């Protein structure tokens, strides 16, 4: 939160810093009695959202993951690669369909990402939607990438933003990779950096 203050950023709530099994709760919030120290051998998930402290500013909302240690365990590497492929399938769906000038609904993006998890045998470990609308509120009022909680048939409109954030939530850890996309007329782009490897901390 000190870094937010230095950069003149605001958020509606604090970021998620979740370790090991806590990262399996997509809405985990540490408290004095419900948290643990970060130690060697821990898996860490950060979910950070914020916007500039100016009128009309739009949120940026990302999740990155890391491992405290010199080398990444095979299991975490395996799960990350499946989630990365799922995320990238959602991105590809958006860029291809929007780029061709066709209509795209939120549920179709969810399905593209979720199909990858299903094919890998992890479909049941994603128990929420794949993404949400983003605007001046971190959860905006546009189309959500949702074919799970509801079938969102709203179209992804030009000049709107949203997240793509599939995950696999196992009992021992939960891993998601979250990016934001901006739709233009006839094109779509990722806003910001994309995580392609788990960060060694």
Largest sheet, strands/sense/barrel? 5 strands, mixed
Helix content: 10-25%
Radius of gyration: 17 Å
Measured distance between first and last alpha carbons? 20 Å
Given the C-alpha coordinates, what overall shape results? globular
Q: Supply the helix-strand structural class.
A: alpha+beta
Task: Give the percentage of residues in beta strands.
Answer: 15-25%
Strands, count: 11
Average predicted local confidence, pLDDT: 96
Could you give the order of the helices and strands?
HEEEEHHEEEEEEE
- Weakly predicted, low-confidence segments: none
What does the model show?
The longest helix has 26 residues. By secondary structure, this protein is of the alpha+beta class. It is 22% helix and 24% strand. A hairpin with a 4-residue loop joins strand 7 and strand 8. It starts with a helix and ends with a strand. Strands 1, 2, 3, 4 and 11 form a 5-stranded mixed sheet that branches. Helix 2 runs antiparallel to helix 3.
Q: Quick recap of the structure?
A:
22% of the residues lie in helices and 24% in strands. It contains 3 helices and 11 strands. It starts with a helix and ends with a strand.
